[in-house]
Amino acid sequence: MPTLHWQKSSYSSEGNNCLELATTPDGSLHLRESDDPATTLALHPAGLRSLLAAVRQEISIRS
To answer: In a 3-state reduction of DSSP, which class is residue 61?
Structure first.
């Protein structure tokens, strides 16, 4: 696996609870929390869109 260059979300605060994103040449996306950098989630853009849609739906149901 190539070395990943992580970018912190612009929505994250200055603390350790930040979402970070990295991309690879094949187009896959890698997500991790800065307080647990060893654990990552890897998906393609379509998978990330599906994940975000499911989270948004769950949030709207609970609101």
So the answer is: helix
Which pLDDT band, with edges at 50, 70 and 90, does 63 fall under?
Answer: confident
Torsion angle in degrees (nearest 10) through CA of 19, 7, 5, 20: 0
> Which one-letter amino acid corresponds to residue 10?
S
pLDDT higher at 14 or 39 = 39
Question: Looking at this protein, which amino acid is placed at residue 34?
Answer: S
Assessment of whether the complete model's pTM goes beyond 0.85: no
Distance separating alpha carbons of residues 33 and 36, to the nearest angstrom: 5
Q: What gap in Å lies between CA 47 and CA 13, rounded to an integer?
A: 26
58 with 50: CB under 8 angstroms?
Answer: no
DSSP reduced 3-state for 52: helix
